[in-house]
Write a structure and sequence with these properties.
Elements (H helix, E strand, L loop, with lengths): L3 E8 L3 E7 L5 E8 L2 H18 L3 E7 L4 H11 L1 H4 L3 E6 L1 H8 L9 H13 L15 H31 L1 H5 L13 H9 L3 H6 L2 H11 L7 H13 L6 H36 L4 H8 L6 H11 L8 H8 L7 E2 L2 E2 L11 H16 L3 H11 L6 H23 L8
Parallel strand pairs: 1-4, 4-5
Antiparallel strand pairs: 1-2, 2-3, 6-7
Helix pairs in contact: 6-12, 6-14, 10-11, 13-14, 14-16, 15-18, 16-17, 16-18, 17-18
Length: 418
């Protein structure tokens, strides 16, 4: 470490502020370069001159993981032939970690040069010792797809929550009906959406003969309903239990509902297309790890791909606790005297995408009755009076991390022990 060259890079859209120092904190230069291949080549040329002139043995480069901006820089420096011959390691760190380290400096200004110097010093004091060098290039394509799926899923959930308010205004009986009194088990099923989109008012549904309404439900449901006439009767019952509005109100609400349903259909179609693209992309990437994840009952191809895209290789982490911390599935202790808080928030300064896929995979494992998860979920569910489901699900996700870590390190499929 004492004979290493430490480089901090503060990255923005158009430029990279690069600070280069040695172990004695001597800053050789702290300059701004264009955020282009030519700009990076210029910086690398200057770094190589220093490396040869002073006989350094190693180069450590640190930048912040600032979304897509940092990727090109980290990838360019980690794959550069000149730097690879100089024993170079490139680290893309969590911005929260560098911000915490910045607080150790007294009255430091918040400028690009000072940010770059803080990152170089972050490397100088050995903060990268427990981190893993940048290896993201081979996972970029899969990661872009899995993160897009996360984005579309979030938008779909928001749109469904939003349209429920309009459905309540126009069709309140459908929302307030008990579970066994609802005409459709899924509010956003194809048939339910067709009913909301086709009929312009509640009176139109009431005035439609029950036989025609039954045929409509059977046709839109592609004859999958066991008793469509019963669904038609429940639908008319829900209509009678709804508030009536004037025609002007119905016109606006109907248009709003129809627009939201179109958006929901579009998002669902795009998610289906992205799922197919994910499956095609993941096939040639870590085939053994992919098969291991699929061997766990409840983890399907998409969730397995999402976990792999964010996790990379399990060898990047020391143990399952490191993976859990990276995913934000850990809780800092809050203790004072003899008392310790039971309600603790889990960390938000982590990989939200990995956390999403792990939690969703856990929910799927529970749904499919995977004993390793379902038994533990029920145990944790019964322990507290508040936040029962959320707490049990997240704690079960932490347990799933332990299982995934063990299987991947041993390179073996999961086998159920009876």
């Amino acid at each position: 470490m004492t004979n290493s060259l430490f480089i901090g890079a503060d990255i923005s859209l158009k430029s990279n502020q690069i600070c280069v120092m040695n172990f004695d904190q001597k800053v050789f230069f702290n300059l701004k370069f264009p955020n282009t291949p030519e700009g990076c080549d210029n910086a690398i040329e200057r770094i190589k001159i220093l490396y040869d002139a002073f006989g350094f043995e190693k180069i450590i480069v640190v930048c912040e993981a600032t979304g897509v901006y940092s990727f090109h820089f980290a990838n360019y420096f980690s794959s550069n032939v000149i730097l690879n011959n100089c024993n170079t390691e490139v680290y893309s760190i969590n911005a929260h970690d560098s911000e915490k380290y910045r607080k150790s400096f007294n009255d430091i200004e918040k400028t690009d040069p000072s940010d770059a110097e803080v990152l170089a010093d972050f490397a100088r004091v050995g903060r990268t010792r427990n981190l893993h060098p940048f290896k993201g290039a081979q996972y970029l394509a899969l990661q872009r797809l899995t993160r897009l799926r996360f984005h579309l899923g979030q938008n779909l959930a928001r749109e469904k929550l939003y349209v429920l308010s309009n459905i309540y205004l126009g069709f309140s009986g459908l929302i307030i009906a008990d579970k066994d009194e609802k005409p459709f088990s899924d509010m956003f099923s194809t048939t339910s959406c067709e009913v909301l989109d086709y009929f312009e008012s509640l009176d139109q549904i009431i005035n439609t003969p029950i036989d025609e309404l039954t045929d409509f439900i059977a046709d839109t449901g592609k004859n999958r309903f066991k008793n469509p006439s019963n669904n038609a009767k429940l639908l008319t019952k829900a209509v009678r239990a709804s508030y009536r509005l004037d025609k002007i109100s119905y016109d606006g609400i109907t248009v709003a509902i129809a627009s939201s349903i179109n958006v929901i259909k579009c998002l669902e179609k795009e998610i289906k297309n992205i799922d197919e693209a994910i499956l095609n992309t993941v096939k040639g990437l870590s085939p053994d790890a992919y098969k291991i994840l699929l061997s766990i009952r409840g983890i399907g191809p998409v969730y397995a791909a999402g976990i792999l895209a964010e996790l990379g290789s399990v060898e990047f982490f020391d143990n399952d606790s490191s993976i859990a911390k990276y995913a934000g599935l850990y809780w800092n202790r809050s203790q004072s005297g003899n008392s310790e808080k039971e309600n603790k928030k889990f960390s938000r300064h982590s990989n939200k995408y990995l956390r999403y896929y792990l939690v969703e995979a856990t929910a799927s494992c529970f749904k499919f009755g995977f004993p390793f998860i379902s038994d533990y979920y029920h145990k944790k569910y019964d322990e507290v009076p508040k936040h029962k489901h959320k707490r049990a699900l997240v704690l079960s996700a932490r347990k799933l991390v332990r299982l995934i870590d063990g299987l991947l390190r041993k390179n073996q499929l999961y086998q159920q022990i009876d």
